[in-house]
Amino acid sequence: MGKWKNRVLAVSMACMSWCSVAGAESLQVGDQGNDVAEVQAELVRIGYDVVPDGDFGPATVEAIKDFQAAHGMDVDGSVGPSTYEALLGKTMPETVSRGSNYVSRRIVQTAMAYLGVPYSFGGTTPSGFDCSGYVRFVFANAGVYLPRAADEQYEVGRPVPMSALRTGDLVFFSTYEYGASHVGIYLSDGNFIHAASSIGVSIASIYDPYYWGDRYIGARRVL
């Protein structure tokens, strides 16, 4: 999986709005808000390469994992009370700003759970997926029905320009035949997760100059 081989979670969820959730046990991938930005700012201050944008994405996950490992903590990439206190030197508040979209979160969590599953032409189960079978399976787990084939999925929802992509959007490519012949699920920062014929369920970039960048044809939003 190239540069992604050490990354267990690489996703940043776009949210409907900023909100507060009482009694949150941890800040985690997909969360957004001022408390996330505060955590990121402290990570920057002590030397980690993250952007304090309030969006708990891939770089923040990796920085938190490194911080936890360096401090002998359980390494899970989320900011629970112990990590929060070790990092910021204060008790984690009972209410934290962590906007979220439940369906998008569930889709991404399900998608990431099958990283490494082998590719199987016509496959629709965790024993082996093809691209559209994987996407359909993941969305069905969140209660969202999609048709079976990539070209059919390309007709669902509404089109989204590349500049407006958000987590959970479907991204499409023209590969072995003209039109929408390959599909994946957008994560963040140009990255998407998909069932690749060469290496199975994995993460790639829509900007990849050697393959995906030239084959990208569009995106659809179904959530």
Structural commentary:
This protein has 223 residues and is an alpha+beta fold. It folds into two domains: 17-97, PGBD-like superfamily/PGBD (Muramoyl-pentapeptide Carboxypeptidase, domain 1), CATH 1.10.101.10; 102-221, endopeptidase fold (from Nostoc punctiforme), CATH 3.90.1720.10. The protein has seven helices and ten strands. The strands form three sheets. It has a six-stranded antiparallel sheet. Strand 8 and strand 9 (200-205) form a beta hairpin. Helix 4 packs across helix 5. 43% of the residues are buried. Residues 1-24 have low confidence and may be disordered.
How are the SSEs placed, and which strands pair?
Elements: E1 20-22, H1 34-45, H2 58-70, H3 81-88, E2 95-97, H4 102-113, E3 124-125, E4 128-129, H5 131-141, H6 150-153, E5 158-160, E6 170-173, E7 182-186, E8 191-196, E9 200-205, H7 212-215, E10 216-221
Helix pairs in contact: 4-5
Features:
10 strands, 29% helix, endopeptidase fold (from Nostoc punctiforme), two-stranded antiparallel sheet, disordered N terminus, 7 helices, Muramoyl-pentapeptide Carboxypeptidase, domain 1
